[in-house]
Model the fold of this input.
Amino acid sequence: MRIALLLSLLLVLPLVWMLVMRPANLPVDTDLHLEQALPRIHGPALVAIQPWLDERHYQSAQHLSNHLQNYLQTARDNGAMPAGSIVVFPEHIGTWLVAANAPARGFLATKTDTAMTWLIARHPIRFSRALRQSNEKDQFAAAVFRMQAAQMAADYSGIFSSLAKTYAITIAAGQSFCRIRTSETAF
Done:
């Protein structure tokens, strides 16, 4: 009887773990929250976009890309962003890609520490490796960013290079995170 119970637990626990730790797919606010009409521009221009974002837009690189694409398409459709324009986004627009693919409970958390705990729980081995490399004042936060750095860089680059190519524009998206070294990449 005990062996059957133990075997049942060994089968059920990984299934529960996979359900709880699967990446979030929460509904996303697609409203652009535009407060003024966009000016019609003839010829390339310098266009600054301050997108309205919340934590749900960072559930995945695709969620963020889709939302930013809505802003660019709206600007294009209204004649405010002709081909060849330079589009500027806020400096830290990519920073919260650190949370991409975190469990839903991380996005529903009311405190940053709780959200980070869910991200750490999803990647305990990567986190412990990153924590051993941390000598910053806030070692836990640094380790979370360090363990996500390579994926963040790939997502960030993929999002903005794809949008720039799609809309035939140049994008200045700011620096998304501090200088972080991993064994794969340096920023």
About this structure: The CA atoms of residues 49 and 89 lie 5 Å apart. The beta strands are 46-48, 86-88, 170-172.
